[in-house]
Amino acid sequence: MTRPCTAPAPATAWRACAVLVLALLLVGLPGTPTANAAEGLTEETHARYVVGEEGALTAEVTTTITNVTPDQGAQYYYWTDYGIGVPASATDVQAVSGGTALTVRITADEADPTHHWARASFPPLRYGQSRTIEWSYTIAGAPLRSEEVTRVGPGYAVFVAQAIGDEGSVSVEVVAPSGLELHAATELDSELQGQHRVYRTEEYIDDWGVWTPISLRDPDQSETVEVPIGGVVALDVQSLPGDEVWRDFAVERIETGMPVLEELVGSPWPAEVRTVREDVSPHVIGYAWFDGWGDEIVVGEDLDEVTLYHELGHAWFAPPQFSGRWLQEGLTEETAHRTIERLGGEGERRPRPDRDGDHALPLLEWSGAHQQTETDSYGYPASAAAIQDVFSDADDATFTAVVSAAYAGESAYEEPGSQDNRGAVDWRRFLDLAAERGGLDAESAFRTWVVASEQAADLDVRAEARAQYAALDHGHWQAPFGLRTEMTDWDFAAAQESMAALTPVAAHALAVQVAADEAGLDVPEQVREGYEEAESAEDYAALEAALPRAAATIGQVAEVTQLVAAERDPVSELGEAVLRIETVTTAAAGALSVGDIDRAGSLAEAAAERAGWATLTGAGLVLAAVLVLGLIVGAPLLAHRRRATQVPAVAAEFPGVGEPRDVG
User: What's the whole-model pTM score?
Assistant: First the structure.
């Protein structure tokens, strides 16, 4: 906008003053604010866009301007020219004021070839005077994949709906067949009027006016191809009518790229997303998008592999699994480039931004509130740079190990696949997963790109706590659940208290494992679980008493087991059998295996005590056996001798007894 001219005298003002032009850009936000009363001119604008049944698009813009700059003595201010910006594809541009057609000149915009200027001339507009100008033109639309942003074709119309003027004095109305689906950057009021739907908005943007990209589509006129994903679900690829180039590009890239995406993320395609839709709205508003509510991905008409795979990646990297805009955008970008590199495709990484440049900020502060602002021009490439730095030395297998655990919501301090301590992944959990699952030191990248000074202090505390955590030797066991939870939650004050209490307990846990290894026995599962599932100071105190007892019992059971298994003299073996030492030892081992430490210890002590009596018991049994055998063998002999000495007497007393008989 130019400043108004002054003239020395009313009669000659129009000759002495150069023509003034209030040129306001219709397509795209202007670099200068609109005129207002403080600048000498007020504006009231109402724009109406009508989409016809056959795809024709017309615009009607009514603007009322008023000169509010008072005359100053012999000088006065006036306007003789007013203009608006129109799309380069606009045709039949007309301007009417007071029923009279105004002369309209169309000139190219040197700064932006996709826009033209439409200027209408009129007699000088003096202080206090108003003029209403009614503009009308047809938007023919530009070819697909051309620089101009408007698109008009069968079943679709894409354009920027806008009205320039003072706040409270602007409005936009879009009239379209009710069968067309609307996508807009601004929430619009909607009203059904017969076979048409009317959309309205008066939302004021940046002290400038109403500005919103509009995309209208007839889904029935889209050309749809189903792409099977893993033989389970089908992804609908919807292209603009007649755009076979984009359709073939998208189908081929999805068919070849989806298996790579699934492998890199370590998870199959989330079936909630059902549609990939070509639209020219991204060309207007500057970005494609993933619509989790509408279960669709919307990408532009450009044959852009990075954007396609980036938006497909949002099917995984999105709430609720991931929180933090930078983390979602950075991971989708890194996954897209790794997919392209694997396939040998085309796509350049974003230039790395200046960390201290304009609009730079810690990525934790980058949010949806910055959408469509200049901060986005920093946030997107900075997010990509941050994640690229995290995985700079990581191969695809390492990348997958970290990302798959993050997508599953796992804690870095749990075993892979564990259900314990799962949750949405924020920057803290992701940093820990990079360290624990990937062996990656990502702290430097986080300090550079992600955190502010407050979170940097948290990183210092984290480093100290993790050093203590690593120094606490649990052997083959996991740290107790309470400590794992505190580390997962970054409750480092509580974690350090727990580690102080666990220092002697961990030593006892290690002693249990050493005792079991030396004995060739398995540690009772209940003992291990008791340690790994402990979560309070009371639990830790109980373990400090229980674990030494477990280690001692394992040693006792091992000792008596070895004693029973050893080769011994027959007398001792006999004693062991009679005392049932092997049975008692087996019972002790059984009690140990089920975690009954007290019973196992008692039985092991009993077995050991009996083993001490085995030799004496065996000897006693042998002696007793000899005595019994002697009695068994000696008794018949003694009886025989007695009979031999008594025969004569018997014979004398009983004739014929004991004498030989003739039995012949």
Answer: 0.74
Convert 419-448 to b/e letters by CB count within 10 Å (16 or more is b): ebbeeebebbbbbbbbbbbbebebbebbee
Q: What is the tally of structural domains in the chain?
A: 3
Q: What DSSP state is assigned to residue 358?
A: T
Q: Which residues pair with 349 in a beta bridge?
A: none
- Does residue 335 share a domain with residue 453? yes
- Beta partners for 56? none
Which position has the token pair 């017309």? 58
pLDDT at 188: 93
Same domain, 453 and 585: no
Kindly state whether residues 170 and 280 are assigned to the same domain: no
Rounded Cα distance between 451 and 449, Å, is: 6
CB-neighbour burial class of residue 502 (10 A; exposed 0-12, middle 13-18, buried 19+) = buried
| Dihedral angle, C-alpha 45, 51, 56, 59, nearest 10 ° | 0
**Distance, CA of 242 to chain centre:** 36
- Same structural domain for residues 121 and 233? no
Report the alpha-carbon distance of residue 87 to residue 28 in Å, rounded.
Answer: 10
Question: pLDDT per residue over 296-353, tens digit each?
Answer: 888 889 999 999 999 999 999 999 999 999 999 999 999 999 999 999 999 999 999 9
How far apart, in whole angstroms, are the C-alpha atoms of residue 257 and residue 150? Answer: 31
The pLDDT assigned to 351 comes to 95
pLDDT in tens, 564-593: 665 566 654 554 465 566 676 677 567 667
User: Regarding beta strands 296-299 and 275-278, do their DSSP bridges make them parallel or antiparallel, or are they unpaired?
Assistant: parallel
Residues 243, 153: Cα–Cα separation, whole Å: 11
Are 312 and 298 within 8 A, CB to CB?
no
Beta-bridge partners for 5? 78
In a domain, 74, yes or no: yes
- Domain extent for 355: 221-479
For residue 599, pLDDT beyond 60: yes
Are 578 and 452 part of one and the same domain?
Answer: no
Residues counted in the chain: 664
CA–CA separation, 145 vs 149, rounded Å? 9
CA 399/CA 358 separation, integer angstroms: 32
Q: Which CATH number is 114's domain given?
A: 2.60.40.1170
Cβ contact 392:458 at 8 Å: no
Clarify whether residues 41 and 110 are in a common domain.
Answer: yes
Q: Is 503 helix (H, G, I), strand (E, B) or coil?
A: helix
For the chain, give me the number of helices (H) and strands (E)? Answer: 18, 22
String of DSSP letters for 268-303: PPPTT--EEEE-SHHHHHS--EEETTTTEEEE-SS-
